[in-house]
Amino acid sequence: MAIRYYDAALYNKIKSWIKDPNMTLMSPQDSTRLFQITAEKNDDKPLSLPLIAISRDPNMEILSTRKKAMTYDGAHIRFDKEHSALLNAVPIQLNYQLDIYTRYFAEADEYTRNFIFNFINYPKLHIEVPYNNANIVHDCTVRLESTVSDNSDIPERLISGQFTRMTIHLIIDDAYLFSVPFMDNWNIEDLSQIKVVE
């Protein structure tokens, strides 16, 4: 299981909460280019506010680096009589940042308030494990860090008062990297054919 599935699930959860048709939501992959200057400026669309950018800390914390039963002999999943798989897992922690850009402070304040209530009251995130068509859903929890920052004085502002930026930090500390290797099942169909040697 790659972390991109957590990125997509968090993006979709936040997107489902946004009712403003003018709001632009950027995924972690898009947010890395938010303020980059490229040689081909014609390909870049101008930013319009309000905008929400989700970014992920590039460091992933592995919560247990020791071999355990769950890393090599996890849950057994049976697909049919002949095929099954193991669901092996390594626990990890992912850290995200939610940046809310608006023209005025009142807008950012309102969006921030709504997101805080939504993450506190609806923290569950559903991840589907896609490997080997396992289609297993893993539930994890998105938690808020206790500090919300007003970063309106960031260097990207060209003019004072140009926009407001509020930052909410999020943690998923019950995430996993999954591996779903196939196994062959052996069945003995007719026991009467087995000869016992005395």
Descriptors for this entry?
two-stranded antiparallel ribbon; STM4215-like; 4 helices; elongated; 198 residues; alpha+beta; 10 strands; 20% helix
What is the compact description of this entry?
This protein has 198 residues and is α+β, with helices and mostly antiparallel strands. The protein contains four helices and ten strands; from the N terminus they run H-E-H-E-E-H-E-E-H-E-E-E-E-E. The chain is elongated and about 60 Å long.
Given helix and strand content, the structural type is alpha+beta
Q: What fold name stands as the CATH topology?
A: STM4215-like
Question: What is the general shape?
Answer: elongated
Could you name the CATH class?
Answer: Alpha Beta
Poorly predicted residue ranges: 37-42
What percentage of residues falls in helices of 4 or more residues? 10-25%
Put simply, the count of helices is: 4
Number of strands: 10
Q: Bin the strand percentage.
A: 35-45%
The major β-sheet equals: 8 strands, mixed
Output the helix-strand order: HEHEEHEEHEEEEE
